[in-house]
Design brief:
Helix content is 49%, strand content 18%.
Length: 334
Amino acid sequence: MKRKSLILLVISVLISISILGCGSIKIQTAKDTRGTKVKVGYMPNYGSLWSILNAIELGYMRDANILVELIEFEDGPSIINALENGDIDIGYIGQGAHKDCINGYTKIFALSHISNADAIIAAPGINSMQDLRGKMVTYVEGTSSEVILNMALKKENMNMYDIIGVKALPEDIVLSIKDSGVSAAAIWSPYSLEILDEIEGSKKLADNFTFSDETIGLSSWVTSENFLDLNRGLLVRFTKALFKAMDYSANDHYEETSTLIANQIASNQENIFKQRGDAKWLTGREIVSGIEDGTIRDYYELQKKGFMETDMIYSDKNVEDYVMFDIMLEAGDY
């Protein structure tokens, strides 16, 4: 009798474990099927993260059935390369990397904002672009850094042959102007702000808005042509989530957004907060209405013109060939 009771007890325990096990499997499966996992490339600054982190934090990505894995990169060209290699699915790029979209490497599916984050920062004693003749100037090749340097030189009837251009990594730019005898740096925020804060007598010679009559600095969300072909519906949902987050954070909530970003990149919230002036932050509604009246298309056309005038693109491609306005319009129904 005792043996029978013991067998019944063991069976009962095994059944309980089995039920619990199945329950835990079901819970795990529910987590796995809660959304499609998407690898997203970003850069460690306010402009790159202002919408995506809010879209995650406020549950908009979850509501869109998307799980976001954020992967950090130092610059746009690195993000473009990762897209081409299939290491990420979606990426954020600044002005300079847009030339790769025009040259046929990736597709733009959402506008983020109009940037004023790029600048030419001069060392003490340098007061104009003309003062840079024959001097060393650091820049990051293939990025918005190189774009603004070319634009600033062109405006003064100069070119890269009039200076000593020194290619550098973004993280080395600040050190180059502090310790290496470099006369100026072409770089984006927060590096530009760091130079201005730490080097007494340094000054801004130009920024994106200096050339607003000639070109425009845009930041966008991009993907590979292959991912676009296979996941158009997902990109629409992703863009809807971004647009909701942009409506939330474009004209307010700077402190909350700065805190999210500081936590993500392990930075000082106060320094992140300073970057809120780096752009004209667009709402999703503004983007949709801008597509409908042609404004957004004109932005990308003006951007392309600037690239052509500085010989950074190969051909005059139609904007519609690389900017997916249809995805933004469909996402506007949110």
